[in-house]
Amino acid sequence: MGTSVFYFVATLSIFFALMVIFAKNPIHSVLYLILTFFTFTVHYVLLNAQFLAVVNFIVYMGAIMVLFLFVLMLLNLNKENEPNKTALIKVIGVVAGGCLFITLAGSLKAVSINNPLTLSNPNIGLVENLGKELFGPFMLPFELSSILLLSAMVGAVLLTKKEEKDNG
Amino acid sequence: MDTNFVIEKFILVTVIFAISLVIAMYSTYAERKVAAFLQDRLGPDRAGPFGILQPLADGVKMFMKEEIIPSSSNKWLFLVGPGLAMLCACIGTAVIPWGQDITINGKVMPLQVTDINVGLLYIFGVVSLGVYGIMIGGWASNNKFSLLSAIRAASQNISYEIAMGLSIIALLLVTNTLSLKSIVEQQSSWHWNVIYQPLGFLIFMVCSFAETNRAPFDLPECEAELNGGYHMEYSSMKLGFYLFAEYINMFVSSTVMATLYFGGYNYPGMDYMATILGPFWAPLFGSFIFFMKIFAFIFFFMWVRWTIPRFRYDQLMNLGWKVLIPLAIANIVITGIVIALVNNF
Amino acid sequence: MESLSNKKKVLEQKSLNLAERMYLPVIAKGLATTISHFFKKSATIKYPEQEREFSLNWRGMHSLKRDEEGRERCTACGLCALSCPAEAITMIAAERKNDEKHLYREEKYAVVYEINMLRCIFCGLCEEACPKEAIYLDGPIVPADYLRKNFIYGKDKLVEAPLEVK
């Protein structure tokens, strides 16, 4: 049953990911992206990584995509005021897209050579095990990134305070 | 999976779903009654004795209204909006432990749909998803006021989610678990988390007022500035869904607050009561106490609504970013220091 | 500018102190105020079942009065119609026949007497103008209706019921 669910969800995520690119309306594009993230959440659950699933759910679907949608709704996206794409930009776009495609194809080839990865501990995704892992071998990078995030948050609060001082 | 398990869960889900819908339905009635009593009036009293059939009358009215879909709206998303709002409001109840394990005919049955070990984060995620219903509905209406109001709702929810998450982190330092069942079991008898986390509770409560778009944070549905808010193009039962989702959200928030900070189904003297009532009635009595706590919170929601005027938008943002977030960070630091001291000395 | 009276009050605008900036004490005070109203008696009167007493100078629906012998007092002089600022009153007069002496007090009486309740402003000038003390606005509130024509009240609705013989 697990495999068939995986194939179903995987098909859905590829379909929604394609719709992100092909949707004409940017808002629809973002909504499809949200659906794609939702299928990713399902993938995490299938992999027994509940914590990652929920964090993906909260952070990506709940916060970041809301911001995306927020900004896109504020922009006045009409056909008329869309900037003209010069030939140079088109060429750059093709080259960048081609690079990404080659990277993807290369990685796909690399994966097919490797033996299928089996986890020594299938419950690694549960909160308790993940926490022990993060606060054990990965203590330093984890703490560093948390300080980075905290400073960003304090900075955001400080930015609002500074404005007040200027106005008197 | 054996069939008994599926049937058991199906019954539990149906009962919980029915209870939350009925409570949301009667919240609309209670809201009007509480508003009336707080203003020295009587409130609805025509439909049935004391007006208790009023929610049915309201529902029938909503269904009978003409349904209008604006011709310039995005039809598909216009329909998705209220459905999404309702869905996000309803699925939050899945991880709430409604009572202790109950014994029916010698068979132990948990009064919780599922005890996932990230239950708290799941609720948090569902709450944060609720804003999509409003945003999609507001944008698909193709109306400036709806859009402005939807954007207000989104920015308000994001701002207050941060403070809410930070207040939950302080709670996690105390409980050491994300599973709601374990959190409730830790608070047995009178060891409620509100005693250990009064500031955290205050922040969480203010944020849940903002997350449910209830007064004094009901800016997304501002009559004076926005002609009604994100649902101004909606009519008939689609409008009903939005309004109803708000009440279900209120119920879920009250439930979460009672679970996290007020001990869920725990009450002082419950061990003594368990010996008297036996393994069938004692859990039910615990659930009864739990619902009393929930109703108290719902009443508090309404009481506040008819007391405090609406915040201005900049005041709302000031409160969220300049007051609640620093307070929540300070709460985490203080909690961490105290726990470190208690554990080491 | 010097103020003429000493009534002018100079308000000092102090910046909020800590307790005020915390909102919470004030919110608690507000909550206490509202909850105190929760237990107060409500001022509502359930209208169709309960009715409030009218004040002494209340002016409601008109009634055409009868005298001690049960005869209609109105003589169709038209002064009420003349005095009416809203022009709500019309009437048609007729001469009393000999066998109608027990019905009408005066020699002339109103065959038709109509008041348009949609026009009437209940000012009471007809009451004041009447020389025969035949019309008084001492009735209840004029009831609602669906059709305009039902608001034109004829003698059937206006003349008070004949005195019962005891």
TrEMBL record, chain A:
Its main location: membrane. GO terms for molecular function: oxidoreductase activity. It is a multi-pass membrane protein. It catalyses: a quinone + NADH + 5 H(+)(in) = a quinol + NAD(+) + 4 H(+)(out). Its EC number is 7.1.1.-. Keywords: Cell membrane, Membrane, NAD, Oxidoreductase, Quinone, Transmembrane, Transmembrane helix. It holds the Pfam family Oxidored_q3. InterPro entries: NADH_UbQ/plastoQ_OxRdtase_su6, Nuo/plastoQ_OxRdtase_6_NuoJ. It is found in: Cell membrane. The keyword Oxidoreductase applies. It comes from the Bacteria. The chain crosses the membrane at residues 6-23, 30-47, 53-75, 87-108, 138-159. Belongs to the complex I subunit 6 family. NDH-1 shuttles electrons from NADH, via FMN and iron-sulfur (Fe-S) centers, to quinones in the respiratory chain. Couples the redox reaction to proton translocation (for every two electrons transferred, four hydrogen ions are translocated across the cytoplasmic membrane), and thus conserves the redox energy in a proton gradient. This is NADH-quinone oxidoreductase subunit J. It comes from Pedobacter montanisoli.
From TrEMBL, chain B:
Pfam families: NADHdh (PF00146). PANTHER family: NADH DEHYDROGENASE SUBUNIT 1, NADH-UBIQUINONE OXIDOREDUCTASE CHAIN 1. Coiled coil: none annotated. NDH-1 is composed of 14 different subunits. Subunits NuoA, H, J, K, L, M, N constitute the membrane sector of the complex. The chain crosses the membrane at residues 6-26, 76-99, 119-141, 162-184, 190-210, 239-260, 280-303, 323-342. It is found in: Cell membrane; Membrane. This is NADH-quinone oxidoreductase subunit H. Its EC number is 7.1.1.-. It is a multi-pass membrane protein. Keywords: Cell membrane, Membrane, NAD, Oxidoreductase, Quinone, Translocase, Transmembrane, Transmembrane helix, Ubiquinone. Its main location: membrane. NDH-1 shuttles electrons from NADH, via FMN and iron-sulfur (Fe-S) centers, to quinones in the respiratory chain. The immediate electron acceptor for the enzyme in this species is believed to be ubiquinone. Couples the redox reaction to proton translocation (for every two electrons transferred, four hydrogen ions are translocated across the cytoplasmic membrane), and thus conserves the redox energy in a proton gradient. This subunit may bind ubiquinone. Belongs to the complex I subunit 1 family. InterPro entries: NADH_UbQ_OxRdtase_su1/FPO, NADH_UbQ_OxRdtase_su1_CS. One of its GO terms (molecular function) is oxidoreductase activity. It catalyses: a quinone + NADH + 5 H(+)(in) = a quinol + NAD(+) + 4 H(+)(out). It comes from Pedobacter montanisoli.
Automatic annotation (TrEMBL), chain C:
Its main location: membrane. PROSITE patterns: 4FE4S_FER_1 (PS00198), 4FE4S_FER_2 (PS51379). NDH-1 shuttles electrons from NADH, via FMN and iron-sulfur (Fe-S) centers, to quinones in the respiratory chain. The immediate electron acceptor for the enzyme in this species is believed to be ubiquinone. Couples the redox reaction to proton translocation (for every two electrons transferred, four hydrogen ions are translocated across the cytoplasmic membrane), and thus conserves the redox energy in a proton gradient. NDH-1 is composed of 14 different subunits. Subunits NuoA, H, J, K, L, M, N constitute the membrane sector of the complex. PANTHER family: NADH DEHYDROGENASE [UBIQUINONE] IRON-SULFUR PROTEIN 8, MITOCHONDRIAL, NADH DEHYDROGENASE UBIQUINONE IRON-SULFUR PROTEIN 8, MITOCHONDRIAL. It is found in: Cell membrane. This is NADH-quinone oxidoreductase subunit I. Residues 65-94, 111-140 form the 4Fe-4S ferredoxin-type domain. Its cofactor is [4Fe-4S] cluster. It is a peripheral membrane protein. It comes from Pedobacter montanisoli. Keywords: 4Fe-4S, Cell membrane, Iron, Iron-sulfur, Membrane, Metal-binding, NAD, Quinone, Repeat, Translocase, Ubiquinone. It catalyses: a quinone + NADH + 5 H(+)(in) = a quinol + NAD(+) + 4 H(+)(out). [4Fe-4S] cluster 2 binds at residues 84, 120, 123, 126. Binds 2 [4Fe-4S] clusters per subunit. It comes from the Bacteria. Belongs to the complex I 23 kDa subunit family. [4Fe-4S] cluster 1 binds at residues 74, 77, 80, 130. It holds the Pfam family Fer4_7. Its EC number is 7.1.1.-. It is an enzyme of class 7 (translocase). InterPro entries: 4Fe4S_Fe-S-bd (IPR017896), 4Fe4S_Fe_S_CS (IPR017900), NADH_quinone_OxRdtase_chainI (IPR010226).
